[in-house]
Amino acid sequence: xxxxxxxxxxxxxxxxxxxxxxxxxxxxxxxxxxxxxxxxxxxxxxxxxxxxxxxxxxxxxxxxxxxxxxxxxxxxxxxxxxxxxxxxxxxxxxxxxxxxxxxxxxxxxxxxxxxxxxxxxxxxxxxxxxx
Length: 131
Fold this sequence. Notes:
Largest sheet: none
Low-confidence stretches: none
Strand content: under 5%
Radius of gyration: 17 Å
Shape: globular
Mean pLDDT: 82
Order of helices and strands: HHHHH
Helix content: over 70%
């Protein structure tokens, strides 16, 4: 198998796992701490803003290549096995059809990132003004 096909397969698996985590987040059988971790992962994975900007050569892709898979693995370990198997099967079926889209989730993610940026700017400005 060529490198491109392997990376495509890994990207497809990451997409499926992310959607399975979304389904698990909404499942009442999943413990609350796992739901909090999953919420952060799904929000970060769907967010247009990255921890390390993609335009930085090599480093820009590290969060997608390292951070997300590690975080997803942690979240999967926090979910009961039977729940994960069910969510993963439902995600596989949904990936073959069409994934749902939510404008509310889009605007919530944008609001979170803008709030975080505003807080960073505010405290940064206060820190610089105090120096």
